[in-house]
Amino acid sequence: MNQNSVAVKKDSRVLFVDMNSFFARCEQQVNYWLRGRPVGVCVYTGKYGCVISLSTEAKERGLKAGMRLNDAMLVCPDLVPVESNPARYRGYHTKIINVLKEHCMDVVPKSIDEAIINLTHHENTDPLTIAKKIKREILERVGDWLTCSVGIAPNAFLAKLASVRGKKQDGLLMITHDNIDDILRPLRLGDLPGIGGNMSYRLERAGVMTPLDMRYAGPQKLKAIFKGIEGVFWHYRLNFIETNIVSHEYRGMQAMRQISAEKRKSMEYIDQLFMTLCLTLEKRMVKHKFRCKAVGFTARYEDGTRWDDAFALTTPIQDAISLMRGIRLRTEKFMDMMNCGPIFNNDITQMRVSVTNFVNADNMLYSLFEDMDQKETAFKTMHAIKDKFGSDKLIRAVEMTDGQVIKDVIGFGSVKDLSELDYKA
Ligand SMILES: [Mg+2]
């Protein structure tokens, strides 16, 4: 289902539901003792565990998602660290989506704690009434600690913006043709989801100083600033045209392989296998035309221990190189910090790479890479060749080249490369 079109939408009939501090509130939901306390959900709760979700109370104490647990404890000594429970969050997610679907079948989950409800074709409904009802029903029927913010607007992007801006106004805000300029006026460029520091700088240099300027800059000017179609999409987003509602059947994909005692003697084999897993995922993402915004990597070792990592990306990716690079940089940073041996070593018995949090590749919402389209075409061609000839030799040749590139990238990799990665989850 692709609900995009270039028509300017008049009425505010798209709802964006964003659960507040979702993981932390799920934990407070099931454990009464955690309520009212600063809670930090972590993938693991050791000293170097990374906080991935904070309760409202913890945010009020100045903590930020992505902090290491030992740093967070210094800022807030009574922080309660809790190990994450993905199955629990998926369970609540499903229950919430089911509540939303009772009002309208046009529900598109955007992530584990966000969903779009499109009431465009449900003319006998009042979006404001439905928004209030949804907020109440989630509290009454899913969990009394699970609050959310609902934004309403003519398109999904502005509805998301409304959900963010409305957080402090009872979690309910509607953007319309009449009030959009007043809502945009106090905002800075960086307040728009998807506009980062680099892009703000480029816009400002071109004389587009605020989101309001951006709304009236015109598609051609934005196209020139963004050096591509992405600029036109920004014009659309701020002028009531839909570019953001897409859905697909996939929540996530993974590629996994066991490694025999014989095979794991060779580091070359392990490196190649890692590359193959990433290429498998790349191929599947290319085929389904989406990119991922979250990556997971697990390695299991002979002695029963494992390395488990998951991270979110500010720029969605699709290609194996970015996947490998992201995973490698994280392991290397960890090794540097912990002063431990290599995570890729001869004791690995199993490797698993997973990708989730997809966005459609037809209309990149948040990517600020200009060369993305070009790169994608190259990869598509590569996969087409592979499919057609199925030749091992051909695959090898292409992948060897990539391998060299990857080695170089990693060789020069430093902490500044990590700025591309967002340690949110
Ligand atoms: Mg949220």
TrEMBL record:
Single GO term (MF):
DNA-directed DNA polymerase activity
Which ranges of the sequence are coiled-coil? none
Tell me where the transmembrane regions lie.
none
One GO term (biological process): DNA repair
Residue stretches making up the UmuC domain: 14-196
An example of a Gene Ontology cellular component annotation for this protein is: cytosol
Q: Which PROSITE patterns match?
A: UMUC
| Similarity section | Belongs to the DNA polymerase type-Y family.
Question: Could you identify this protein by its name?
Answer: DNA polymerase IV
Record organism: Mucilaginibacter mali
